[in-house]
Design goal:
The complex is a heterotrimer. Chain A is of the alpha/beta class. Chain A is built from 17 helices and eight strands. In chain C, strand 3 and strand 4 form a beta hairpin. The chains are: A alpha/beta, B alpha+beta, C alpha/beta. The structure holds flavin mononucleotide (FMN), iron/sulfur cluster (SF4) and FE2/S2 (inorganic) cluster (FES).
Chain lengths: 427, 154, 647
Amino acid sequence: MTMQVLFKNRHPERIATLEEYCKSGGYEALEKALKKYSGSEIRSIALDALLLGRGGAGFPAGKKWMTVADNAPFPRFIVCNADEMEPGTFKDRVLIHADPHQIIEGMIIAGYSVFAERGIIFIRSSYENAARILEREVSNARQAGFLGKNILGSSFSMEITIHRSAGRYICGENTAQINAIQGKRANPIQPPPYATEKGLWNLPTVTHNVETLACVPHIIRNGHDWFKSLSRTSTGAGTKLYCVSGRVKNPGCFELPMGTRLSEIIEDHAGGLPPGYQYKTCLPGGASTRFLPKDLYDIEMDFESLKRAGHRLGTGSVIVFDQKTCLVGATLNMIDFFARESCGWCTPCREGIPFIRDILFRIENGEGKEEHISWLQRMSKFISNSYCALAPGAAAPVESLLTYFEDEVREHISQRKCPFIQKDMLS
Amino acid sequence: MIEEDFRHFLENRISASDHPREQIVDTIFSLQDRYGYLSDELLAEVSMLFEMSHLEIEEIATFYEFIYRKPVGKYVIHVCDGVVCWMNEYGSVLDHIRRKLNIDYGQTSHDGRFTLLPTCCIGYCDRSPAMMINRRVYGRLSPEKIDDILKNLD
Amino acid sequence: MPTLIIDDRKIEVTNGTMVIDAAEKAGIMIPRFCYHPALGSAGACRMCAVKFLDGPVQGLHMSCMVEAKNSMVVSTTDHEAVEFRRHVIELLMLNHPHDCPVCDEGGHCLLQDQTASSGHVMRRYSWKKRTFRDQYLGEFIQHEMNRCIHCYRCRRFYQEYSGYNDFGAMGIANRTYFGRFSDGSLQSPFSGNLIDLCPTGVLTDKKARFKARRWDLERAPSICIMCSLGCNTVVSSRYREIIRIEARHNRDVNGYFICDRGRFGFSFANNPERPRNVRIGTTSSTFDDALKYASSKLLDISKKYGSKAIVCMTSTNASVETHDSLKAISRNMNWQNPGFFMDRFQQSKITAAVERLKKDIAISLKDVENADFILATGADPVNEAPMLALAMRQANRRGAKIVILDPRPVVLPFKFEHLSQTPHNIDSSLHGLIKNITENNEFEATGERIKKSLHPAIICGTEITGLSTVNLTADIAVLLKAAGKKAGLFYLMQGANSFGAALAAKGSMPFTEILERIDKGEIKALILIESSFPYDFSDQELVKNALKKLELLVVFDYMPGYILEMANIVVPTLTHFETGSSFINQEGRLQKTCPSYQAGTPLSQVSCGKHPPREFRKDIPGSGAKAAWEIIHELEKAMTRTNSQNI
Ligand SMILES: Cc1cc2nc3c(=O)[nH]c(=O)nc-3n(C[C@H](O)[C@H](O)[C@H](O)COP(=O)(O)O)c2cc1C
Ligand code: SF4
Ligand code: FES
């Protein structure tokens, strides 16, 4: 078993209580932060710890906090992004169900670092259980004096509320989320101005993924060097929650050192592929990342390594595909998802993704033509120049399908059908 | 149409908020939990509660997935069609429900109990195939398990 | 001031200019759908992509989303950019119907233009197209959702720019729908701008529907005369009939927009009842005969009762040329000074306003948009001068506080403070305010806000206010100016040319007094030129009885009405659409219209739907009308001629 930080208090089928969390050192970081550090010191610690955003983009958290100007207006907001709608991703859910207080503590500390006194946890509506857990634990934290006025006798006050999403993938994009919270249509807002300058109600707003925030207390308690030492690679820091799903024996969410090799994640932790199945490829970080070619099976799973290989770590949610699974079908499924979830604001996404879907649909159903391949190539290149990052994400599986699995696509076209035999019905 | 007590409850919750508009979705969810779906009448109520036009509420209501603007059954079954569930044959889950309840996507069973809708990845890929009924999630579905779940709903 | 290079042209622009505008300044029009100078950037259509070759930003970006910065090198013709734009067109055309032959947007459709210019000639998409159901949006605007390219211009204008909330975007992804909650008329008094803004044919002019192809229209710049603001328009006509009116950009007056009254209120010009023939009594006559007859009659009256028994009456809506010609004839013939106003009260208020409106404090609508505090006294902008409401909203969106002092239930499309006070109390409030500004004692809220502002705008209506109010508001503006602020004064007046009338009206009687004199028998001949005052007067019986006492009633007008039936001589006049004429708006700005078509009975009225649509004749049916000032000029000539013959 590797070092468990975020999952230290994880029990099967049970949520860690506030006492349990406190016993394991919980809320010590908050006390330390409030008593020992100034907001700007916390910002530098986060920067030194190389805490990279776990929501997909891998942006340094400390750097984000530093963009909140000292003289920016009040109140300021800290938003915890628990929308988690990236297909294949469920780490935030597992984390909330395991040990919710580290998220709350992380929010308070992050809030303190930028003097944000209002926290909002934006959570998708299929996580109703998690939402209730958070509501309960926020109120427990308040009763224990960790939230509310003058936290732990300091001059810092904070309130946290839970905001349920009415459901759309785009609500996970942090600027669209700002619109969603304000009771508007969740179209993204391209900077400038950045949300850290003008976000919710035109006030400074810092948004973080659940996992990012959960790391914060541990960093403050144990120091940035400790956090960096948790990683396997020098370019990464901390641990990472890797979700593994798809064709593996034990799908699940595993806390491993950042930079753990993909092969190790799949084989040692997710139990490898079931008997009779061979690994073909995987999506390393959810549906909006590129299919990995086989030769990257051993790649170190951190932001930098994947970037260097021309890929993205995304949410670190590995979806494993075996040799019997049709990748055209899989891509069609994902493209269908993106087409449905596009917010409809910009042309490439709104019109381009459905066009790709239509072409893939023809190919998968044996009506593909030779020219469709070049159409798809052109299309997946062009739709990346869109208003927000949704469309480039949607383009990733399509483009990588053509790059690494063109033969499979061509087989569909030449055989005038999907070459993968339909599997038996579940019965 | 809304009972007075309930309206007071909603009004109080809205006015307790620094920014009333933050409460729109929660208000609609509360109404749906009680009355099923956001009918034109309820939409008019929401527009009154927030002093917004019907159109402004409709703009929001039609954007999001879990705001229902058409009548739905007592139980809304959302079958996950995410890529992992696709790999794990969500199609057969769907077929089983279709056959069992005799409804297709977007339809409501004759007894008004069930509505069947798709939904994208609900974040239970480790327990795929999965579905969601009235915001409760069920994973590792098999035909027997589905029968059980549906039987135990009331 | 950043300097950048676009397509090898060096251009210097002001800070904050977007690259798309910088290019336009350099004479390079980058294709666009969603961007509009008044609505700002949206980054939605992706049509304005250009390549940034060097400088702080590099690669392919939307020129509407990038601010021009020093040392930028931009190419609009770069292969990658051209390819990308071609691709955007292909995507927008995927679902677009091929109904250009019956689309009213054809000929001025941005999508049509860009499709042609991008060279997109083959649709690769061969599957089912997306379709929508259209809505009934009222009698002015036609909805045709299938043509939508989702640029969001309509919603951005309707909700954000103009502040109405019954039209917007519904649904999501490629099913996004622009319309109303349900069928019904659009509530915004600015809804017609959607027609101009929509880059394709989703929102078109319903009244103009299927009447003409764009390229067949006769088009000419014009001015709206529905209120005193003088918004600039383009008039399009065909076969002697106005088909539609659009907004014409004028930076200082109306910007890019006009109100619905100005856009759709032209039916009087096409009115089948419109007087088209010269008449003496009830028999039609020729222009020369009518004038000859009129001049001899006028000379008789002059001889019998003295020349002062004759008066000309026009209105605040007639053109500067008409006003001027009336002044001239009246002076030369030694008649009474011509009348311009309804009553003495109006005349004195507008005259005072014109006097007080000095060059250094007079502001334009554009200045109102930039004000940071607005006090409007006795004004109901949406009803009296709609575009003022739109300008005030822009000020409000930029943070200006707005206070309305008015006893009426004023409704405006933005948040404002309404101090509901009787006209009398308005004055004492203003006095209080003046005291507030001059003395440094404790302030009331409004005074405090004015003090803090840098660009206060003082607006004053002249309809329900008193003469003192007109002066007090000017005093306030002067005081604020003296206090070092960029303060401005903005009056509202009732006619399109009230300002001009006030300049001409020295020593003249208003309509009510002329009526009295007629009633008393002191005035025997009335020449009524394009004036609705007799119809607007509350006691219509009194008007009729008075007019009956006249020995001579001459009417020059383009509007029908019972007074024409009573007249001894009728000469039809041309509307400002048909003759070039000038108007001075409430801010003192002289603006000119161009004749947009040859006047006459519209072909549609002559032909009664028959084919061929006309009988062959040499003259133009119903073309007997002339510009009022020309008629007056001719009358003066005829009078001099008759006079000399008599001697
Ligand atoms: C289409 C789209 C969906 C996203 N969904 C999520 C999400 O569900 N959860 C999340 O944490 N971040 C999501 N993100 C990333 C957020 O925009 C944002 O980068 C992140 O919440 C910042 O937090 P971090 O710095 O802690 O990663 C999404 C981004 C895009 C473009
Ligand atoms: S890429 Fe464009 S249409 Fe797609 S979600 Fe982002 S802004 Fe909306
Ligand atoms: S004009 Fe720039 S994106 Fe539409």
